[in-house]
Amino acid sequence: MASKNIWISPDSDQWKAQKEGAERASRIFDTQRDAENYGRNVLQNNGGGELITQNQHGQIRSKDTINSNDPISRKDTEH
Fold first, then answer.
1. Measured distance CA(46)–CA(60) in Å, rounded
2. Which of helix, strand or coil describes residue 75?
3. Whole-number Å distance between alpha carbons of 53 and 10
C-alpha cells in the first residue's frame, strides 16, 4: 500500500511540498501557508492522509490528518 503522506519542508528561502518516498518536490512555494494549502488539497482529493510540516532543522513541527473530500456517505442506511 502506498503512503499517503505529504511533507512540507523549507528549501532555502522557499517551501516544498513532497509526497513521501518521492525524490523530487511536487511543487515549490514562496510561503509555508501556500505549501500547506496545496498539500491539504492534494490529500483531500486523493483519499486523505497525513500532512507533515518540518521546521528549518528538519524536526517535525506539526502533523495533521486530512480526511477525504468524499461527499458520499459510507453508512449503511438499509438496516
1. 23
2. coil
3. 9
At 6-26, the pLDDT tens digits run 999 999 999 999 999 999 999
Task: Sheet with 49-54: list strands edge to edge.
Answer: 27-29, 14-19, 5-11, 49-54, 60-66
- Residue whose C-alpha is closest to residue 5's, from 50, 46, 43: 50
CA separation for the pair 64, 13 (Å, rounded): 23
Residue 53, all three cell numbers: 510540516
What are the φ and ψ backbone dihedral angles of 27, each rounded to 5 degrees? Answer: -155, 160
